[in-house]
């Protein structure tokens, strides 16, 4: 084994002795803030697989959204359901639709307790297993209760995947293309929706077509699981284990170097050891080596990161994204488009628009930065919501206003909240609390989604659709203020630099 350099010995010594004086912290952090850190060498080819297989977790999530919209129609059809229990109540249909969402809430809660123990890679493997089991149980369900259990199992896979995938991608991606890769995960979610809508439209008139719609997820989950099995662990997670005393320090350091070499390919040359020590120099400043407690999550820089991450995700949901999409088919019908009579085709059109705009965000996120896309996109969201409110209040005889607002909303959401929300939460949490911080944020995401979806119909009955969209528009304006004053620009910074500069 190579002899450690003096700087490496200093890092190990400071960790072993718990020495974290303010002068040591300043000496380590100052070069990071002045941009004097070493460049991360990598090859595009070696970066593909560590992104691709975790991103399958997002694709399977999106596919479920798209397929379920057609599966619920198929399962309630006396002609095409292929079952005797097709006559479902609205509550039973709602459980099929939202079952995966409740499962995702369970998965997120479980991730809070076990994510840092499992590690990012093993959590993704477990999520693939739940995806696989959920798909099979749902597809072969002989009775309604078994189908709901399958939906819950699949949802647990969603919760684990949406928690672990952003962490694994952010911790293994080179900082120069981290924004692009994490935004591409959102692209995979939208692509999955498009695939789900398309498969659903093709099978909608097939007997027991809903079984095939849900069954398609099973082989995709197998591909995801096998692919992740061959990927290395996150070097940053390994180093976190090292400083928390969960193994022999030098052995874990060498393992982290080996994993980093696998992730970067031959382009990394002999700089892997240096990059690992750059990460260690930041981790050595932790005031305590043990895992963060629940109380610590709401103190100091952990609270600041949670405010940024959970706040952004909360605004992402309570600006009405689920509700606007629920109105899509009706808006197209009001506008007189004959194709809108087929809800699945209208959904395919919207999914294509979402895919295109997400692609635009992926291309420009590491060039323009996070804040410009958020500020510009959310401004468009606010404008579209006020237009929708005006349509349902004053302009009911001008359906072009509603169509324009709908397309503007979808496009601006996919430029801003859609990809940037998941990108920011994967970047902003310090390594020691990243697992727990992301699990709380994912819980906020699915919880707020469920709340908005549940509350929209009662609010609509009470206030009218126009008033509800005006309320969402006001919330969008508040989210603009939150972004302007709270959200930092993280473009081009390593995860350690983000922590040093903004937390």
UniProtKB/TrEMBL annotation:
Domain Major facilitator superfamily (MFS) profile: 50-491
Main location: membrane
A Gene Ontology term for the protein's cellular component: membrane
Pfam families associated with the record: Sugar_tr (PF00083)
Membrane topology of this protein: Multi-pass membrane protein
Localization terms from the record: Membrane
Gene Ontology terms for molecular function: transmembrane transporter activity
Highest taxon listed in the record's lineage: Eukaryota
PROSITE patterns reported for this sequence: MFS, SUGAR_TRANSPORT_1, SUGAR_TRANSPORT_2
Keywords assigned by UniProt, alphabetized: Membrane, Sugar transport, Transmembrane, Transmembrane helix, Transport
Segments traversing the membrane: 94-112, 124-146, 152-169, 181-200, 212-231, 305-328, 348-366, 373-394, 400-425, 437-456, 462-487
GO process terms (BP): D-glucose transmembrane transport
UniProt similarity note: Belongs to the major facilitator superfamily. Phosphate:H(+) symporter (TC 2.A.1.9) family.
Name recorded for this polypeptide: Major facilitator superfamily (MFS) profile domain-containing protein
Native organism: Anisodus acutangulus
């Amino acid at each position: 084994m190579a002899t450690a350099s003096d700087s490496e010995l200093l890092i190990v010594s400071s960790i072993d002795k718990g020495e974290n004086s303010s002068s040591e912290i300043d000496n380590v952090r100052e070069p990071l803030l002045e941009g004097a850190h070493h460049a991360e060498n990598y090859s595009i080819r070696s970066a593909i697989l560590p992104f691709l297989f975790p991103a399958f977790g997002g694709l399977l999530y999106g596919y479920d959204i798209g397929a379920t919209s057609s599966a619920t129609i198929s399962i309630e059809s006396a002609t095409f359901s292929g079952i005797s229990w097709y006559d479902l109540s609205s509550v039973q249909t709602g459980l099929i639709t939202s079952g995966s969402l409740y499962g995702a809430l369970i998965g997120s809660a479980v991730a809070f307790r076990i994510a840092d123990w499992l590690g990012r890679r093993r959590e993704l493997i477990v999520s693939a297993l739940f995806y696989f089991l959920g798909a099979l149980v749902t597809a072969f369900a002989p009775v309604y209760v078994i189908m709901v259990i399958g939906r819950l199992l699949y949802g647990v896979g969603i919760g684990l995947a949406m928690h672990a995938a952003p962490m694994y991608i952010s911790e293994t991606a080179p900082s120069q293309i981290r924004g692009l890769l994490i935004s591409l995960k959102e692209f995979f979610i939208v692509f999955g929706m498009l695939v789900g809508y398309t498969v659903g439209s093709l099978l909608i008139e097939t007997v027991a077509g809903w079984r095939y719609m849900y069954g398609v997820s099973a082989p995709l989950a197998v591909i995801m699981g096998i692919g992740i099995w061959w990927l290395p662990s996150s070097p940053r997670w390994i180093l976190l284990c090292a400083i928390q005393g969960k193994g022999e320090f030098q052995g874990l350091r060498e393992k982290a170097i080996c994993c980093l070499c696998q992730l970067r390919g031959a382009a990394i040359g002999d700089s892997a050891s240096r990059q690992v020590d750059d990460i260690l120099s930041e981790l050595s400043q932790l005031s305590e080596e043990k895992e963060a407690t629940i109380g610590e999550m709401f103190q100091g820089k952990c609270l600041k990161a949670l405010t940024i991450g959970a706040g952004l995700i909360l605004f992402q949901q309570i600006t009405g994204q689920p509700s606007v999409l629920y109105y899509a088919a009706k808006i197209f019908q009001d506008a007189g488009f004959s194709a809108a009579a087929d809800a699945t085709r209208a959904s395919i059109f919207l999914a294509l628009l979402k895919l295109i705009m997400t692609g635009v965000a992926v291309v420009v996120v590491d060039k323009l930065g996070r804040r410009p896309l958020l500020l510009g996109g959310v401004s468009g969201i606010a404008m579209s919501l006020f237009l929708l409110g005006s349509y349902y209040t004053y302009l009911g005889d001008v359906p072009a206003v509603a169509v324009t607002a709908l397309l503007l909303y979808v496009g601006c959401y996919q430029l801003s909240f859609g990809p940037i929300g998941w990108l920011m939460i994967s970047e902003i949490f310090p390594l020691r609390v990243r697992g727990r911080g992301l699990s709380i944020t994912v819980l906020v995401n699915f919880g707020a989604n469920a709340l908005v979806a549940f509350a929209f119909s009662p609010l609509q009955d009470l206030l009218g659709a126009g008033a509800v969209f005006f309320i969402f528009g006001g919330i969008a304006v508040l989210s603009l203020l939150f972004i302007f004053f709270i959200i930092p620009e993280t473009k081009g910074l390593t995860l350690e630099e983000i922590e040093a500069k903004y937390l």
